[in-house]
């Protein structure tokens, strides 16, 4: 082997080690992101399940919200542990190198977290609150939260709220809930609109939000129309139906 | 490459084309059967309860004849190649599942299980590697069932049958609860599952209307009087 | 390519270009007529029953004048070339079928047959290989009719006409039953036929609303009787 | 290519690049304004009638400030090059048209004309070859208006305002009748016009629900009268 | 069943029969077209095979051309029989109804026929000759030949000629042949150009023809460059190479 | 929308449709001419040097007749609307530029400038706002020229003309150097410019083959001298 | 849907995801091996004949270790699901076929058959329904072999080995003749087969150059003298 | 969203927008420099060996001035955000790497290492988290170098320099061997690396042509020795 080739081999050998390390780390983070996505989806499913399982004995809807949120919080903690591990991998300048690999899971997590937060408080979770949730015991951020991940995660929330509102209708108190969610999602849409020039992805998601909103509006409309016709207060309606179905 | 080798390779290459052709013929047959059944079952929306058994009976022979098709396909598919060809007939199979489950519901009020469905369609355990009823196809059939029942809830009321919507409501919610326990991926099944909510909502509205109308005769007058 | 061959091909191509141009002029004319008729008929949704005959009468002259166009096209198309050129006017023709069938339904409550439609449009049997009303175009017209009637069912109720939706329901279900007898291929017709389900559902919901509120007292009997 | 030639070409190419950059800055500005307005106007769906004037007043300053942008663009575009650059801002312009027309409808119940729209947006006749409101952009704005009003019809009912859908119905049908008289060729505008049918159907269904349930006692007369 | 439904059923029953007949005929024709396509492809393969099988003993290239064409003609007759059957299905106004279903096989047939014709005569087959080949014993055309099918079939011929030219290079006399084909395809390209405004499909195929032509030109170039360098007449070149390879 | 308004809009829309139709006719004509020329010029690849002048002469009448088309289009386009319609003919125009530049190169060995090209095509300075030769169209024509010349380099060698590739090499490198000084943004032109590299490589390889084999004895000196 | 049922379905849905993950790991491993072998074999282009055996010996251990991967994959794939998963590893498998066939050619000058290739890669007949060497993958490997040999023909001459191109020429023509007997469809294989012609042409040019150079020493002087 | 939150996000977004604008200005500058250098270096293909040093010297000042740009960017990028913004300048940086490596090769015949390249471009170790030369950008530069050298091999022969192709062959094979040690993922780098094969093939063919004709008498030994 010529000495020049020898030289090249040595240089590239160093590259090989570096690139392999990078690829392995990337693979690990993609895997983590996928795990986080799956767990987050499970949280969302769980919330839907708890909120729509027709437990006639549980008359108090606040109670159910709290119970659902509590179960969600429990699972979110698991995810937060995974983020602690991700944080260790992306210290210093590494975060931005792997940001795109971390992002899908992070957005799904924000979707789950904001859904839980909504059930607890009826409010939209703030940027600082999300960043706070990605912080270790000593107050250190695992990594910086990008505005894009924050907004795209929230944008997906509106789809889940739509599902939640529609499923709720067949439940005690669900008719009221659909109205609340309707107003909430409408405000989300207005709020997000001003940020759309910054993110192409958000523009696409806004049209999904619009169609979710229309679905909720249609549901709220169907309720309002019937309530106007019979002129019965909503709480009484629930009782009438329960009696009719179980009789 | 010796001539024999070439011959053998050519033969293998040609086989696939021919096989696809033959399976397609069976699928066309299958398709005709499911179309006939769907056409007949469409009448449930205007058939009064007492005439229903006769209608269902008229569908059964075609449903049973589906066994011929499944057997024919199973005989065609080479060992181990189920996954290679299944796309070709999955639409027809889902329709057949729907038909079987709808008949079963209308007769018993209950849900037809996966293995019972397989049995009705004459699918045999030993075909395993050539023709089987995949879970996803079974679930697609159930979703079509719910779609149809939401329409039936509306039309039952028109026919004066106020019990049916309530039965349907209970049955469908049960199926929905089942689906919500599954970890579905973001595929067609998931999208169709999402759409179930609208069927449930529609059924709910019917139950709502019926309950309020049924109510106390006195309040009924109020409402009716306003018309 | 030798000159003679080039000459031959050019000649054939020039003929086609010229013919296409001439047919296109007629189609533009045809299109204008159907646009006018569709515009007028759009008013049925806000016209009370007693004003309807006058509205329909106002459309008839234009409908009749379609005969000029069909005759002109039939004169242009060379023998045996009907299927070559028909794509050019089939949209207009389908609109004309829809118009004729809608007027007929509103007047008689019945379905205008294929040969009657041909006659209204002045299509003559001896044009057979140059201009005829193909089944598929007739069927497209009927599907447009059903689309329109589902809208009319809704608007009739708004106008206080509670009988119309029930009549429409019976009529449309008959047509739907007819369609379900056909083995449609996976083409536009099939897709449009599939979409009829939504129209039927909508009509069923209107009938449901009307029966639930007993707005058309005799309705229940009618609907059941129509099965 | 001699140096002088290259020099001249480069100069022209650079000019275009620079100009595009400058127009883009203005369009970004324009876009921000229209998005702000759209965001605010989204609230009409949950605003009760008496709070509406205040909401509309809050949008007006931004609408008026659009004149700065149109003037800035008109100043940038070289003579005769309107058609070269207009694609860049047509989306924003259509949003602005929509906004102006929506506000006008909500205040007066009437349709804002093309020249009035131009005036509101500060577009001057002498800009003709550099910045003008093309008919197609105006019509796109109106279609967006109809899309929005069909949603408003639904949400008004939810808010207990049963008169609004009926007003909207009359207004939108008028616009639709106007559109159906235009010879739109097969482009985006045509496709969007076709989609108007869904909005109208939706509005008609709202009016139907309201009349069926006698929620707006005078409605029947109004609708029929408006025809 | 109501009488009105009865009426509808009767009407649609007639439609059903008509539509089924139409669909069956369409299926049959599509099947025929596919069979014709496959047979035509086999003719083309056969021609390539005969022309490129290195039979050193056959020194006379004209002889080989004739032999290939003869074998091609034999198989083309089979295809023509299929067209006779197609013709029976598409009498009168039916031809134009099923033209699109017949077309793919017809174009592939024209490709095979024109390839055979080229090997026999070195010329482009004319429109009338193609139509003539689709004629029964009593001189009746099976169906009219469209200019589009004629031109698109010929356009595909250029691709086969490219393959033929490139494969020929490694054969006795192939170097001359490449030059002939090059000129022929270049003329085809010019000839077709004027018809492109009429057919979108032909415009697409012209660019395929252009790239085939470039490939032949490159091959002809490589030959010319070497021949110029060594300055040996082409016939001698063949002998030298054969000697060198077999030695 | 009031009738007058609709009337006015329709009039404007109709004008556009009619204009488009008329321009399209001219463009079809233009297209025919450029295709005829391209078909003829395709023969340069098999024409020996001494027969070339006659070939070029046979193209010239058609090239000159392009002036009729440019004049006709210029007469059709309304003032200030050049940028609105230019897409319609830019392909044909680029082909015409290519043709003119190729003939010029083959006759003189030099590059035809932008203004000379305009002149040959009869484009007049006072049409400025209706029909002009945009730089980008001129540059597209030149790129097509280089594409064609790389093929000519190859085919000249086949024809035994070993000087031509060397001349082409010098000419094309000059054009390429010109292009590389332009600030092309990332659009079609940029992509096509990038593709020029392949043409240059190809031409270099031909020159390489010729010099390696000393086929053009004087070549080495020439090429080096041309740098 | 009872809980047990849901549980079972969920389990099945999850299994696939996990299985894909595991197969992917093996494919990554497989890929590494083929990459290593390709890297080593790249040296054949600069290795003199006498050093070749040692080079081939250095590749053999990796080739043999491929058996571990095929065995691992065969163990993972569930019975009958070969066709479901094969896309995942077919690229790696084709590379392995290429490697085995190249080594075989360089050692024996002959073609490695399909079943011998299977054997070298440790693929067992009883895996039939889980892992087998499909004909199409074998053929892809052979095409890659021809691609590589055309390069080797060129480089052998540079290394002074004038026999190799002639051997390669005979071998490759034989393979090509074999391919030309196959009835390939219009797929990747067909396209890659078409490209073989260029490899053959390149090899032919080398044979041509070598034959002419080898020729009579006298004429060689002529040519060499001209340099 | 409460006002505070909106405020917070807007603040972050505004920062980003401003920073991007500033970096973009620097990248435009960088781009200009690399375009100038590439333009100059394009002349190596027609420059005889003895004129080369002067040509390379003319490029060096621009290359050195790149340090200003790298320093300016490093000053703009916030700590740890290197990977966030690097896409913006990576094309320019890769061109700069190519330029530096090409000059180095032409002067020394050797490969410019990563750290030496960094140094030439003035990239400082302490900028690590804001501006550094990533391995992937360095490798992209090397691939561009190989692309250019394959062209140079061809053109050197035209210029009568028969040693250069052989030197290039050895150098490029070394680089290729280096690349083949890396496990590249399926990205642009991988695709470009795969394309290197064509460059190597081309260079091998040039070396073949030169050796066959014994134009560089010592070449055979050299090439074999380089293995
Ligand atoms: Mn979601
Ligand atoms: Mn072909």
Automatic annotation (TrEMBL), chains B, C, D, F, G, H:
Chief place of localization: cytoplasm
Sections of the chain in a coiled coil: none
Signal peptide (residue range): none
Location of this chain's protein in the cell: Cytoplasm; Nucleus
Protein name: Translin
GO BP: RNA metabolic process
Sequence similarity: Belongs to the translin family.
A GO MF label: single-stranded DNA binding
PANTHER family in UniProt: TRANSLIN AND TRANSLIN ASSOCIATED PROTEIN X
InterPro entries: Translin, Translin_C, Translin_fam, Translin_N, Translin_sf
Any one annotated GO CC term: cytoplasm
UniProt keyword annotations, A-Z: Cytoplasm, DNA-binding, Nucleus, RNA-binding
A Pfam family the protein falls into: Translin
């Amino acid at each position: 082997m010529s000495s020049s080739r020898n030289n090249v081999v040595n240089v590239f050998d160093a590259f090989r080690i570096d690139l392999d390390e990078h690829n392995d780390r990337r693979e690990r983070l993609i895997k983590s992101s996928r795990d986080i996505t799956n767990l987050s989806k499970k949280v969302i499913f769980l919330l839907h399940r708890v909120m729509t399982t027709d437990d006639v004995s549980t008359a108090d809807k606040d109670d159910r919200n709290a119970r659902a949120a509590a179960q969600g919080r429990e699972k979110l903690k698991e995810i937060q542990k995974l983020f602690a591990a991700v944080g260790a991998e992306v210290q210093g300048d590494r975060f931005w190198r792997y940001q795109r690999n971390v992002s899908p899971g992070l957005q799904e997590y924000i979707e789950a977290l904001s859904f839980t937060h909504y059930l607890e408080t009826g409010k939209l979770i703030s940027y600082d609150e999300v960043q706070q949730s990605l912080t270790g015991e000593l107050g250190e951020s695992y990594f910086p939260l990008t505005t894009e991940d924050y907004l795209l995660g929230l944008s997906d929330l509106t789809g889940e709220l739509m599902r939640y509102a529609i499923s709720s209708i067949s439940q005690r108190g669900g008719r009221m809930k659909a109205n609340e969610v309707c107003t909430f999602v409408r405000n989300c849409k207005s709020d997000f609109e001003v940020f759309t020039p910054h993110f192409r992805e958000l523009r696409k998601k806004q049209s999904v939000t619009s169609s979710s909103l229309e679905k909720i509006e249609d549901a709220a409309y169907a309720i309002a129309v019937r309530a106007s016709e019979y002129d019965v207060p909503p709480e009484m309606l629930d009782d009438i139906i329960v009696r009719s179905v179980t009789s | 490459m010796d001539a024999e080798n070439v011959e053998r390779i050519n033969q293998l290459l040609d086989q696939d084309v021919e096989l696809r052709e033959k399976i397609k013929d069976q699928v066309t047959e299958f398709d005709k059967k499911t179309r006939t059944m769907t056409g007949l079952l469409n009448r449930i929306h205007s058939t009064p309860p007492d005439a229903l058994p006769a209608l269902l009976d008229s569908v059964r022979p075609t449903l049973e004849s589906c066994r011929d098709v499944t057997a024919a396909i199973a005989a065609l598919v080479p060992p181990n190649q189920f996954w290679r060809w299944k796309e070709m007939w999955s639409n027809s199979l889902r329709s057949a599942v729907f038909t079987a489950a709808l008949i079963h519901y209308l007769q018993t009020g209950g849900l037809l299980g996966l293995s019972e469905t397989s049995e009705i369609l004459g699918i045999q355990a030993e075909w395993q590697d050539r023709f089987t009823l995949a879970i996803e196809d079974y679930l697609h059939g159930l979703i079509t069932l719910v779609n149809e029942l939401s329409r039936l809830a509306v039309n039952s009321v028109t026919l004066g049958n106020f019990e049916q919507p309530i039965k349907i409501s209970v049955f469908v919610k049960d199926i929905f609860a089942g689906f919500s326990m599954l970890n579905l991926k973001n595929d067609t099944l998931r999208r169709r599952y999402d759409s179930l909510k609208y069927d449930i909502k529609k059924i709910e509205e019917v139950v709502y209307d019926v309950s309020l109308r049924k109510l106390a005769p006195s309040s009924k007058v109020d409402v009716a009087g306003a018309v």
